[in-house]
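In this supplementary section we document a worked example of the pipeline. Step one takes a protein sequence of length 314 as its only input; no multiple sequence alignment statistics are reported here. Step two produces a three-dimensional model, which step three serialises into structure tokens for compact storage. The input and output of this example are shown verbatim.
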Amino acid sequence: MYINTVSHYLPSEVIGNEYFTNLNNLSNEWITERTGISERRKASADENTSTMAMKAVETLLENIPYSKNEIDLIVGATYTPYDTIVTLAHAVQHQLQIPDIPVVSISSACSSLLNAIEIVEGYFAMGKASKALVVVSDHNTAYYNEMDTVSGHLWGDGASALLISRERQTEGDMQIKKLITGGAATSGKATEAVVLRPNDRGVVMPFGRDVFQNACVYMPKVSQQVLQECGLTINDLDYLIPHQANHRISLNVINTLGIPAEKLISNIQYLGNTGCAGCAIALSENKDKFKKGENIVITVFGGGYSYGAMLLTV
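The serialised model returned by step three reads:
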């Protein structure tokens, strides 16, 4: 499979740490030290998960290497849906006006990007599609409890879109060499460590330390696995894009893998945790810096303790 092009959308409103200092006395220094976050984006009153995704798709269409009407599969991914019936993917289908194609939306928390791409892989393998649009979007600030001093300051909003084909379309395509996902809901406090129950009080993280510890185990482990299954080692890795949950987690992951900081791609410092869109946004932000032949690993870990890694070669 090949990623033909990737784009992203970010809301314009920037929320700095001083907002939370005024709200609940969390200092800028405390937030930065514990999370690495200095600011994050917040969707406006007239934006939502679906509209942000559609903005990312609009940007994607500016660089599409073929007619949008050749898209024969749309997969949406989010854990913060605007509408649970007219799903994210269906909203995008309506935007594109492409009828009578498979359209599906999924959620596996912050790992949803890779599970969405894995769905594409399955459709391609079965011969049911050949060109897919994957849209990932999370409107965390619609669900979070900003008064929560444990996790209220972590969240940001954003969306990304990726065009994926079964066959190479241009020399600029990034090849998806290997994709591995898994669920570790049997580990630690997976089913209670971080939850979003819409009928309760939004996103809460009562066992953040358990999330931290398991993320620091599973992300480096599956990153090594995806390289090994392609006959590569850590020395062959040019860039790592981990899920943008906490900068200390990212630093722990690269320390475990033994790779230098300059190979780490991170946007949590200025975007916060943008959920399942974070890695795709980072890929889009940095796409022009990647050189032919370079290897990139995207690795994710999410609530419910879903995890995965994907190896891309430019």
